[in-house]
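Ligand: L-homoserine. Inputs:
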Amino acid sequence: MKVAVLGFGTVGVGVFEMLGNAEGLEQGTVLVRPGKNDMAFKRTSIEEIVSDPEIWAVAEVMGGIEPAFSYAKEVLKAGKHFVTSNKALVAAKGIELSNLAYENNVGFLFSAACGGAVPILHNLSIARESDKILSISGILNGTTNYMLDSMQRLGLDYSEALKDAQRLGYAEADPTADVSGLDALRKIMLACAVSFDMLPTEGILNEGIENITSQDVKHFMSRGYTCRLMVKGGRTENSVYAYAEPVLFRESAPECSVLQNFNMACYEGLNSGRISIIGQGAGRYPTASAVLRDLSTILGGRKYMLRQNCKAVKAENDKLSQLYYVRLPESMASRIPAESADTENGVARLITKPLSVLKMHSLAAKIREEGGKIFFAAIGE
Ligand code: HSE
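Predicted complex:
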């Protein structure tokens, strides 16, 4: 079965290479930007791909919403299966694309969009058929995990750690989505859609690691804590909660042993209890392996991850309360309800009273609006 590939960057090259050795799948054409059409297998127009009767499926690994969204619609309408690693596309347009796939009786899978090689969406889409998924959590961004790990274990500063993650092909073309927590947030949005038939598109919250400093990391280490960027999603009475934020863990927590670009995806099923899967969350071959897994899954007859009743919802992030570590200017410290505080050289480090996720993120946004530099992280269980 011939597969066309849209995009020939880090992941596209991996997908194309792997198609050369995959059982039941074959290399088709590759869509590249005009000017890069220097080899026989490359094309510059989507029309050539959708009108080619030999192409059975299309793998989109170009990223971004446009032109990927327009291409996806053309592919599905042409009756070809569509798989993608593009989180931004599925978070924004997943329901529409899924409906189009059902209408045209073709596959639409996107497990490469969440967790790199870690088969979390694939497993959730199967587990939810026989069990009730209650919640999902984990480390779902390889770039920031690599950065936090390098800052802690190798003593790199923030910009050195980011440069290394970019050089190794973990970061997005524009790494803002990685370091702001948006990339991780999109992944938990997809996990909620697959598990609960609810895609949270409003009320979602992301705090990343853009404001962490080497001093913060040293401070955590001196107290036996490790910082990780976590996502959480789960059912509330009428909707779901869904957010990304840094969390501090004690050394014995499994999250502390998730190193480099690895991800750890966990879910809790009513009957299965807690299940964790660890593997590489970013990079050429780990991500390409998930694209190939989706293609093989369609070959095997499973075509959908979203159900036809999946709907967009507003997340409820005001239901759970937790303690936070907060570092901010001493002059603004009174703005945060605190259990305890240390101040030194104009900088305050606080442990808050229990606060909802919504409250903490809103307080930080206000402080930033007024020019205050603030970093916060939840204190893990
Ligand atoms: N930039 C993403 C990450 C790539 O670092 O996790 C994989 O989704």
